[in-house]
Amino acid sequence: MNGVPGMPEKVFALGNVRVALWPSPIAATEDGKASRYKVTVERKDFNIRGYPEYTGVLEPDDIPKAILVLKEAHNYLANPNIASQQVAEFEDANLRLVERVP
Prior knowledge:
By secondary structure, the chain is an alpha+beta fold. Helix content is 33%, strand content 25%.
């Protein structure tokens, strides 16, 4: 995907919107961690047969979800030392949020 092989390092999702962080293999630090990332934003939809498909085109209702997920991805990249605690809090808060959406 986007010239980055392998799997994303981290995926943040809310509803049908997901953001994936792809490490750049050519920009690694001495400890092997990526120092640069590519970020993808996708919307999950289902085709006629009911199989999931992902697209980069968002619906207007997806924009608030994308903003929340992008903020968490940015926090993860900007603050790697405290990111795992924030991610857990984000996931807990958004599970409740998702339950309230009709």
